[in-house]
Amino acid sequence: MKTKKRTVRALLALAGVGVILSGCHGNVKQAATTAPHEYLLTVTRPNQLQVIDTQTNSITRSCDVPGYFGAGSIAMSPDGRIAYVLSNKWEDIYGFDITDCKMVFSAKQSSSDVIVKTFFSLAVSPDGKELYTVQNPVRELDDRYEVMQPQLAVFDTTAGLDVQPSRSWPVDRRITKIATMDNGEVVLGGADLKAIDPRTGTVRVISKLQNWERGARWLTPDAFAVSSQGEHVGEYIMAYVTAEFKDDSMNFETADWWWGMSRVDLKSGAVEQMETVPFQFIVFSWVSDPHDSNIIYGAFNTLSKHNIKEKKTLAVTDMDHTYYTINMTSDGSTLYVGGTSSDISVHDPETLKKIGSIQLPGDMSTADMRLVRLQE
Length: 376
Description:
By secondary structure, the chain is mainly beta. The chain has one helix at residues 2-14, and strands at 20-21, 25-26, 28-29, 37-44, 48-53, 58-64, 74-76, 82-87, 92-97, 103-108, 114-117, 123-124, 130-140, 145-147, 151-156, 167-170, 178-180, 186-189, 193-196, 203-207, 222-224, 235-244, 256-265, 271-278, 285-289, 292-299, 302-307, 312-318, 325-328, 335-338, 343-347, 354-359, 369-374.
């Protein structure tokens, strides 16, 4: 039944009044429609933003990104039109209109004597007016490097090209993925999960990880935030691994090992922290099912499906190779597993069966896969 529905959707998409050329590398642009159209975005080497139609699972257009390939991090404007890409060895940020590849924003964060690296962290304010990134600056001296204070930099997205931060606030080290909540705060994925108000610089802890207080029989979590992509349900996930020891001997071999997560509802700000399922294999990224928040999917060398309420693994399938990232359409009908190489594997979320593959012109490495709904 799902296959028939997908076929019908694809035929309807092709039956528009007309098409126009994209104006950049790629195929054609669909005729305007009244309903939002969903696209999958990623970045591939040598350095291109790929815009993929989720109805046909084909590349609609490819936007050339200046500089060397970076982390491949992508942050989207609230209307789904502007994609901000971290480029040039994790230093520069470029914003593109995904309908025609026009560059509408740029920011070069390094200067003549200060090298600035951003480790994955990009986010856009709920109103689309500001872009946030965590800068990790190092001053290059004649005989040494001076490590400087990391900071949350705030950019005006309407300022055009060669934009400088309008303000900045000191933050912790080790911050990777960030996201914005509807209340305006920015979630900071670091040793602990924190939130900062970009208007005042006020920071608060929303979920303790390295500093959690669960007693000596719980191992301090090893947290991981590189591929948190929950835009289809408006959430942020910080995954972690921990162990519960049997006794005070703290024997690692007899301990119960767990996957856990801190999950933030970006709309309400609610946070839940829990052990999810036993640690049986490596998972690089997680997404939640839009129809049931107790169902989550994970990807790395395997694609897996879990019920975290029952703490059970429901299904596991081996992948053709390692995949770093996973995402899901907003209606929950399709799973996309990508990153690492030059193909995106397409799966049925009910069975995890592979139902397709999207071939790309270059590998994705650590790049995001973002789902956006664009009103065309």
